[in-house]
Amino acid sequence: MRYKSFLTKHKQTQKCYPRHIAIIMDGNRRWAEKKGKMRIIGHQEGFKALKKAVRFSILKNLEILTVYAFSSENWNRPIFEIQYLMKLFSFMLENEMNNFKKYNIKFKVMGDITLFNKELQNNIHQAEKLTLNNNGLILNIAANYGGRWDIIQSVKKIINKVQKGILNVNDVTEDTFSKCLSTHQLLPVDLVIRTGGEKRISNFLLWQIAYSELYFTDILWPDFNQYVFQDAIDFFISRERRFGGF
């Protein structure tokens, strides 16, 4: 999509309701530490908060919810914590399939999942396959994902097409590039929410959120609820989105 046509298309929806919300779920470990509990308890409570966020997204007729579950930098955490997170992810997939079916949720994962164990990889593929034809909320999990990784993968795809003569280098546009990203089948991100008090993007959707609204809250992720979620949505609705224009 050319820049001018992008502006023209979106000027009509400056005060619209968000269709695609992305969340950086930060604060599980700090939540646990503040309560004198083990870190894994914080991750357990974070999983419960995610389930609440999904239910609220459905209630509010949100089209896409993308959550930053495990970044490519998270491999630097203690091995026992990583192993627990992988087990928690598998548990979620094994135990939430009935809810995916009941609430018509389409499940997707973006990121390099080849570094996960085979069981988790199989569970991911199975969940994506079984929910492929669901047409309700798209729950998009960013797992072993990084914005820089995403951009590099897109560049490699474009280079490959140019080398094969499928694409002329002079025809490479923002639209061409966007179609090679892991979010190419999704609507643009309207709103990014980050919990935990930090005010940074942390290598999340670097290309995709160029014109997204950003909402930061001090609430730690396990304490995230429908009231905080609604505050973020109200913030978005109050914004005048100019997309770089006047």
TrEMBL record:
Pfam families: Prenyltransf. It catalyses: 8 isopentenyl diphosphate + (2E,6E)-farnesyl diphosphate = di-trans,octa-cis-undecaprenyl diphosphate + 8 diphosphate. Substrate binds at residues 27-31, 39, 43, 71-73, 75, 77, 194, 200-202. Its EC number is 2.5.1.31. GO terms for biological process: cell wall organization; peptidoglycan biosynthetic process; polyprenol biosynthetic process; regulation of cell shape. The keyword Magnesium applies. This is Ditrans,polycis-undecaprenyl-diphosphate synthase ((2E,6E)-farnesyl-diphosphate specific). The active site is at residues 26, 74. Homodimer. Belongs to the UPP synthase family. It comes from Buchnera aphidicola str. Ua. GO terms for molecular function: ditrans,polycis-undecaprenyl-diphosphate synthase [(2E,6E)-farnesyl-diphosphate specific] activity; magnesium ion binding. Its cofactor is Mg(2+). Mg(2+) binds at residues 26, 213. Catalyzes the sequential condensation of isopentenyl diphosphate (IPP) with (2E,6E)-farnesyl diphosphate (E,E-FPP) to yield (2Z,6Z,10Z,14Z,18Z,22Z,26Z,30Z,34E,38E)-undecaprenyl diphosphate (di-trans,octa-cis-UPP). UPP is the precursor of glycosyl carrier lipid in the biosynthesis of bacterial cell wall polysaccharide components such as peptidoglycan and lipopolysaccharide. InterPro entries: UPP_synth-like (IPR001441), UPP_synth-like_CS (IPR018520), UPP_synth-like_sf (IPR036424). Keywords: Cell shape, Cell wall biogenesis/degradation, Magnesium, Metal-binding, Peptidoglycan synthesis, Transferase. The lineage of its organism: Bacteria, Pseudomonadati, Pseudomonadota, Gammaproteobacteria, Enterobacterales. Binds 2 magnesium ions per subunit. One of its GO terms (cellular component) is cytosol.
